[in-house]
C-alpha cells in the first residue's frame, strides 16, 4: 500500500487547532472526556492517528508536570505521612 | 558584578568551545541528495556557515516549530548583514539545512513539499538509509523509529538540536529547544566575529 504523505502546513494547523479546542474543552470540564466527545472526534478526524496518540501522551505529561510544579513530588512511600 | 558575570560567561563559552573541538563532531563527508534531486556532499558547504537540524516530515509539532525558529534565526542574521553594509566585509548568508531521520518515507519529493513552508533557502537532504544513518552518526544524533501502527504509520523519536557548523565543516555550537531565535542569532554572530580557522 502506498504510504500516506506527510500533512501539509495547512493540515498541521488544522490538526493543532482541533487539538487545542479539544484540550480547552477538557480544561473547562476537569478532563471529563464525555463532555467533549464532539471535539474529540473532530481532533481524531483532523490528525493522523500517530499524532493523536502523541498528543494524548503529551497532555498527560503536561498535566503531570503541572501537578509536580504545584503540588510537589510525593513519592509513593509518603502516602501515609501526615 | 556585571564584569564578573560577563567574564564567567566568557569562560564558560571558551570551555564549551574546547569540549566541542575535542569531540570534533561532524567529521567525515556525507553523501546525500537535496530536495531538488541534486547530489550534495558535506564538502559542498565548506566555506559556509551552516545551521543544521535533523528531523522528519511526519513530525507532529517539534520539527515545524524548530524549523520556523531556524528560519527566523537566518532572517535575523540576514537583517544584520544588510545593516552592516557591503564595505564591512559581509559574510556569505548562513545556510539552513534539514537532514531527515526518516529516509524510508522522506523521499526527495516529500522533502520538497515540506521545506517550501519554511525559509526559502532551507535545503532538505535525504538519501539511502545507510547514507542518512552515517550523517546522523557523525553528529551523534539520536533517532529511533517507533513501532508502526495497523496502517503502517510511525513516528521517529529523535534528539532536538540545531547544530552550528563553521566554514571548516566542524561543529562550533549547538542549541536546544529552549533557546530562542534571538539567543541563537546572538551566539552565531559571536562565533562569526571570533572565528579562527583551524591550522592546516
UniProtKB/TrEMBL annotation, chain A:
Any one of the GO CC terms: mitochondrial intermembrane space
PROSITE patterns in the cross-refs: CHCH (PS51808)
Keyword Mitochondrion on entry: yes
Listed Pfam families: COX6B
Compartment annotation: Mitochondrion intermembrane space
Entry keyword annotation includes Membrane: no
UniProt GO BP: mitochondrial ATP synthesis coupled electron transport; respiratory chain complex IV assembly
Chief localisation class: mitochondrion
TM region positions: none
Entry keywords, A to Z: Disulfide bond, Mitochondrion
Function recorded in the entry: Involved in the maturation of the mitochondrial respiratory chain complex IV subunit MT-CO2/COX2. Thereby, may regulate early steps of complex IV assembly. Mitochondrial respiratory chain complex IV or cytochrome c oxidase is the component of the respiratory chain that catalyzes the transfer of electrons from intermembrane space cytochrome c to molecular oxygen in the matrix and as a consequence contributes to the proton gradient involved in mitochondrial ATP synthesis. May also be required for efficient formation of respiratory supercomplexes comprised of complexes III and IV.
Record-stated family: Belongs to the cytochrome c oxidase subunit 6B family.
PANTHER family, per the entry: CYTOCHROME C OXIDASE ASSEMBLY FACTOR 6 HOMOLOG
Name of the protein described by the UniProt record: Cytochrome c oxidase assembly factor 6 homolog
Annotated source species: Semnornis frantzii
TrEMBL record, chain B:
CDD domains: SCO
Keyword Disulfide bond recorded: yes
Any one Pfam family match given in the protein's UniProt record, by short name: SCO1-SenC
Disulfide bonds: 59-63
Highest taxon of source: Eukaryota
Recorded topology in the membrane: Single-pass membrane protein
Matches recorded under InterPro entries: SCO1/SenC (IPR003782), Thioredoxin-like_sf (IPR036249)
Annotated residues for binding of Cu cation: 59, 63, 158
Subcellular location, record wording: Mitochondrion inner membrane
Keyword Disulfide bond: yes
One biological process term in Gene Ontology: mitochondrial respiratory chain complex IV assembly
Keywords: Copper, Disulfide bond, Metal-binding
GO molecular function: metal ion binding
Listed GO CC annotations: mitochondrial inner membrane
Family per similarity comment: Belongs to the SCO1/2 family.
Identification of the protein by name: SCO2 protein
Amino acid at each position: 500500500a502506498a504510504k500516506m504523505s506527510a500533512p501539509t502546513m495547512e493540515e498541521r494547523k488544522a490538526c493543532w487547532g482541533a487539538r487545542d479546542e479539544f484540550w480547552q474543552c477538557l480544561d473547562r470540564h476537569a478532563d471529563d472526556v464525555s463532555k467533549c466527545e464532539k471535539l474529540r472526534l473532530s481532533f481524531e478526524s483532523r490528525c493522523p492517528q500517530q499524532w493523536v496518540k502523541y498528543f494524548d501522551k503529551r497532555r498527560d505529561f503536561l498535566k503531570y508536570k503541572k501537578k509536580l510544579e504545584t503540588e510537589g513530588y510525593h513519592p509513593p512511600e509518603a502516602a501515609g505521612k501526615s | 558584578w556585571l564584569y564578573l558575570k560577563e567574564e564567567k560567561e566568557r569562560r564558560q563559552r571558551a570551555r564549551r568551545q574546547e569540549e566541542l573541538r575535542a569531540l570534533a563532531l561532524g567529521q567525515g563527508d556525507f553523501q546525500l541528495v537535496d530536495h531538488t534531486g541534486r547530489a550534495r556532499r558535506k564538502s559542498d558547504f565548506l566555506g559556509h556557515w551552516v545551521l543544521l537540524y535533523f528531523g522528519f516530515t511526519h513530525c507532529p509539532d517539534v520539527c515545524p516549530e524548530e524549523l520556523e525558529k531556524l528560519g527566523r534565526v537566518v532572517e535575523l542574521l540576514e537583517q544584520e548583514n544588510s545593516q552592516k553594509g557591503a564595505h564591512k566585509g559581509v559574510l556569505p548568508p548562513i545556510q539552513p539545512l534539514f537532514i531527515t531521520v526518516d529516509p524510508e518515507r522522506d523521499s526527495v519529493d516529500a522533502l520538497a513539499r515540506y521545506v517550501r513552508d519554511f525559509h526559502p533557502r532551507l535545503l532538505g537532504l535525504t538519501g539511502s538509509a545507510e547514507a542518512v544513518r552515517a550523517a546522523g552518526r557523525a553528529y551523534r544524533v539520536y533517532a529511533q523509529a517507533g513501532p508502526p501502527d495497523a496502517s503502517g504509520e510511525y513516528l521517529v523519536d529523535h534528539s532536538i538540536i540545531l547544530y552550528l557548523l563553521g566554514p571548516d565543516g566542524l561543529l562550533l555550537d549547538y542549541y536546544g529547544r529552549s533557546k530562542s531565535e534571538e539567543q541563537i542569532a546572538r551566539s552565531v554572530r559571536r562565533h562569526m566575529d571570533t572565528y579562527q580557522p583551524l591550522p592546516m
